[in-house]
Amino acid sequence: MLNNNRLLSVALVLFGVTFCLIYPLAMLWPSGWAWHEGSPVSSHYFMMIVGIYATLGIFMICAAKNPTGNRSLIWFVIWSSIVHAGVMGLQALGNGMHRGHLTGDVPALLIVAAVLAFLMRRVDMYIK
To answer: What is the distance between the alpha carbons of residues 86 and 102, in angstroms, rounded to a whole number?
Structure first.
């Protein structure tokens, strides 16, 4: 159980830090991370998403100290990442201008969900 918790903690910190870095990622690779034209600060929507993901990232980093005590938050990250990736994927398929997201934030969110779900299932096996 200790190794499973440790792996989950590492994943939470790595993904949490990544969530906090959405803004710089959009600056480096706009077609894969930003859903608007122009500077990231020119979009109120994008800045709202940056704020939400940075907040979630900080909570993920905090949850890494006690993953089993933060199961609800972790499952929220998993399921909200799947839903977000699904919506973005459909939108990217429907609009050729956003196809870069199919190689950027869409797979990134699915990777976050898959890794955390795999690790959470291993932790949950030992709890029950």
So the answer is: 10
